[in-house]
Specification:
Elements lengths: L1 H22 L5 H39 L4 H30 L4 H14 L1 H23 L6 H40 L5
Helix pairs in contact: 1-2, 1-3, 1-6, 2-3, 3-4, 3-6, 5-6
């Protein structure tokens, strides 16, 4: 239950740090993380709960539909859920980066994320494949070689999987956001949005 309440807050803090790394700005991990949480917790907390629920329900729904024996309707629902799940993963690349970069309402962030998920399809696919390869490696380390690689399999997700997945998602999303939402207005504002 604690994970559901901290999910969005932690993702917002991580998105702020990785966005600054992608931009090439200096990063002070602890103070930047706390700053991002203080600035975005009112929006990140309720959305994080919704995000956590969707991240559990979508795979569970896919697994239930895969185990059911059914006809055409079951197949339609299965593929609709798979497509929606992949689209939502793409949207997640953009949601938290927009949350920490702009002062937008949650509905506007979701709408923009859906548009960006479709506009940046090539970048999103590459980030998704990179994350898929990391998850595959983590599973190989956990379940192969008769347990000889188990310590590596336990350490891999903690050290590499989550951080690299977040970085790949932010790297795929920030430049598309910058191209469409920041660069056209940079001359009128005079500086990059924080």
């Amino acid at each position: 239950l604690l994970t559901a309440f901290t999910f969005g807050i932690v993702n917002a803090g991580a998105a702020y740090i990785t966005r600054n790394i992608v931009k090439g700005d200096p990063v002070f991990v602890y103070s930047d993380f706390v700053y991002a949480i203080r600035r975005n917790w009112k929006q990140a907390l309720p959305f994080g709960i919704l995000d956590f629920i969707l991240c559990i329900l979508i795979p569970a729904d896919i697994m239930i539909l895969m185990t059911n024996e059914g006809g055409l309707l079951n197949g339609v629902f299965l593929w609709a859920n798979i497509i929606f799940g992949i689209l939502y993963v793409f949207m997640r690349f953009y949601i938290y980066v927009q949350m920490v970069t702009f002062d937008l309402k949650t509905v506007k962030i979701l709408k923009n994320s859906l548009i960006f998920a479709l506009l940046g399809f090539k970048r999103n696919i590459l980030a998704f494949l990179g994350i898929f390869i990391l998850v595959f490696l983590a599973l190989i380390f956990l379940f192969s070689a008769g347990g000889l690689l188990l310590p590596l399999g336990i350490a891999f997700p903690l050290i590499v999987l989550f951080s690299h997945s977040t970085f790949m998602g932010t790297y795929a999303s920030y430049y598309k956001i910058k191209e469409i939402m920041i660069d056209p207005y940079q001359d009128t504002v005079g500086k990059d949005a924080d």
